[in-house]
C-alpha cells in the first residue's frame, strides 16, 4: 500500500474514533418514510416526508382536503394557504414535530400578486423565529392550485 493511501486510511479511521462522529454518520444514513392519513396521500411516486437522521424533508403540499380528497383549486389563496400549512403541520405531527422545527420552506405561487395574502396566513403559523424561505412564481402547479409549500425540519 502506498504511503498516501496509508495516510488517508489512518485519517479515516481516526475520524471514526472522534466522539459523536460515528453516531452522527449512522443517523444520517437512517432513512424512514413519514406518512399520515391526516394529510393528503401522495398523488405520485413520492412520500409525504422522509426522515434522514434528525432532518425531515417534507414534500410540497397543495390544497387537498385529506378527509374528502377534494382539491380546492377554486378556493381563494387564503383558504388554500391555510390548508397547505395545516397539511404540512399534520405530516410534522406524525413524526412528533411541529412548525417550530421547520428551518426552511419553499413557497411556489401561481401569481406573486397573491404574496401579501399568502404571507399573512403564513405568518400565523410561524409567529416567532420563522424559517428561512424562498418564494417563487411558477407557470403552473399540480391540480391547478394557487400555492404549494415544501419544508425541511430538524428535531
Question: What does this entry show, briefly?
Answer:
With 155 residues, the chain is an alpha+beta fold. It has helices at residues 3-17, 21-29, 77-94, 115-125, and strands at 31-34, 49-52, 55-61, 102-109, 132-137, 147-154.
What CATH architecture do you see?
2-Layer Sandwich
| CATH topology heading | 60s Ribosomal Protein L30, Chain: A
Oligomer: single chain
CATH superfamily: RutC-like
Main β-sheet description: 6 strands, mixed
Range of strand content: 15-25%
Q: Under the CATH scheme, which class?
A: Alpha Beta
Helix content class: 25-40%
Terminal Cα span: 43 Å
Describe the structure.
The protein has 155 residues and is of the alpha+beta class. It has a single domain (30-154), classed as 2-Layer Sandwich (60s Ribosomal Protein L30, Chain: A). Helices cover 34% and strands 24% of the residues. The chain has helices at 3-17, 21-29, 77-94, 115-125; strands spanning 31-34, 49-52, 55-61, 102-109, 132-137, 147-154. It has a 6-stranded mixed beta sheet with strand order 1-2-3-6-4-5. A hairpin with a 2-residue loop joins β2 (49-52) and β3. The chain starts with a helix and ends with a strand. The model is unreliable at 4-26 (pLDDT under 50).
Please supply descriptive tags for the structure shown above.
single chain; globular; 155 residues; six-stranded mixed beta sheet; 6 strands; alpha+beta; 60s Ribosomal Protein L30, Chain: A; 4 helices
Amino acid at each position: 500500500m502506498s504511503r498516501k493511501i496509508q495516510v488517508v486510511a489512518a485519517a479515516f479511521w481516526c475520524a471514526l474514533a472522534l466522539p459523536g462522529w460515528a453516531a452522527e454518520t449512522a443517523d444520517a444514513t437512517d432513512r424512514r418514510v413519514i406518512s399520515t392519513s391526516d394529510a393528503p396521500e401522495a398523488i405520485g411516486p413520492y412520500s409525504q416526508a422522509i426522515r434522514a437522521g434528525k432532518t425531515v424533508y417534507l414534500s410540497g403540499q397543495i390544497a387537498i382536503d385529506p378527509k374528502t380528497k377534494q382539491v380546492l383549486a377554486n378556493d381563494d389563496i387564503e383558504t388554500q394557504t391555510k390548508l397547505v400549512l395545516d397539511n404540512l403541520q399534520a405530516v410534522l405531527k406524525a413524526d412528533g414535530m411541529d412548525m417550530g422545527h421547520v428551518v426552511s420552506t419553499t413557497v411556489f405561487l401561481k401569481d406573486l400578486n397573491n404574496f401579501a395574502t399568502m404571507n399573512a396566513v403564513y405568518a400565523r403559523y410561524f409567529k416567532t423565529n420563522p424559517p428561512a424561505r424562498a418564494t417563487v412564481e411558477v407557470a403552473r402547479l399540480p391540480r391547478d392550485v394557487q400555492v404549494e409549500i415544501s419544508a425541511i425540519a430538524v428535531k
